[in-house]
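ingest -> validate -> predict -> emit
validate: passed (alphabet ok, no gaps, 477 aa)
predict: started
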Amino acid sequence: MKEKSNFNINNRKIVFKLTLLLLAISPFSLFSQQSYDIKFKIRDIYADEIVIKSYFGKDIIIIDTLKKNEDSSFHLQKDNINKGIGIVTVGRFDIFTFLFDKSNKFDIEMDGDWNYIVNGCMDNDLYFEFQKANTNMRRLDKNIRKELQENKLANRDSLENIYKKESKLFIEFQNSFFENYPNHIMSKLQTSFEDIKVPNEYKNGNAIDTTKLKEFVYYYKKHYWDNFDFSDQRLLGTPNFFKKLKTYMSEITFQKGDSIGESIKDFIILANKNNGDIYSKYIVDYYLKSYRNVPFSYSEEKFVGIVDKVINYQITPWLPISEIDNLKLEAEMLKPLLPNQKFKNIREKDFEGKTHSLYNLKNKYTILYFWSAGCESCKINLDILEKFYNEYKEIYDFEIFSIDLDHNMEASLKFRKEHPFKWIVLKTTSEELESKYNLNIEMTPDIYILDKDKKIINHTPSYNQIEETIRLVEERE
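emit:
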């Protein structure tokens, strides 16, 4: 192509801080990087600065903000950039994309119609040629559709023939591109994100045989990554990788802790086998960050499932031993607080000195509610909880067993006077809960919804989820 063209609470806090050191590691530190020296000249814009970004898994990373030079160019000189697709942004608009690839010093001149000149980088020259052909094909499709909709006298046969001819040429161009440049990022994207072929044994005509749906789902999940080139780090620097990963984790993986952990384990084994340890590190880093220290049962279950299935010296050998041990310790601390586990029998005194026992409550549901008189977030939407209690206590047969953990007795007494709740209100501290029950309550509000046997149904800091949880259980019965 032409170059010119278009726990112990103290222990738990230590674990929390040490684990944060692991999870706060910039993803850039996990993968190989390259220095770049790129000059951009963008016609038809009058901005004095542009922003250069890049894709990294789910995220779009800001690389640098560039000021216009005297010759109207913008100059990027930056170290530690991952290979992949870069973005040039002006104001709120992404105006074009380019490649961070093998060549680290080159010039790009671009106008608003995808007319471009690239000096010093064949990868980008090919990329722009591919993107321009793709843009022209989409534009033709849009124009033909518009003409057919707006012009009743339009010659449909003629327009369709034009589209078929151009579509054939575009497909021939693509096939030639993929054949001649198999290692270009666009060719790798085409191959790595192809759908797997469905064997005839799972088909009923053109559709999936519903009598073999379970077997097909297993086959599809097992072969989902067959075409993906784990050895090519650049794919992590495109928006395509995370879309594929999200489908794998959210749509074809059963959304339970063990299943989430098993899917990540299978992914890591496959990636490591195919020289893709960078993808293994990414998936572990991303999903630990997604589920760790999120006070909802569904996140805690997934975090524990990941740690149990994935975090060990064999599957994640890149993690320091101390970090593996810290994660495992935190997961063990969460296990007694997961759904279907029986909550410990808390026995504490109310403000009048009367002792109340959690296990003495015989209601169908118990709302175990930890809060603090000085906690501002506890007061937000508190009216929702009071309204729900007054209207549905008898309908759903539940009681609220609440514990004020504020250290300031004066503040607690004042709040108690201002809010004379009808439910049980006990008084203690988080340190006392840890000492007596080995129970770590670090943040308030914190709510556990229990069944009649005091087994955990759900854990949440949100008042709204109390009613949602109970109604869902009622609907299932």
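The first strand starts at residue 4 and ends at 5.
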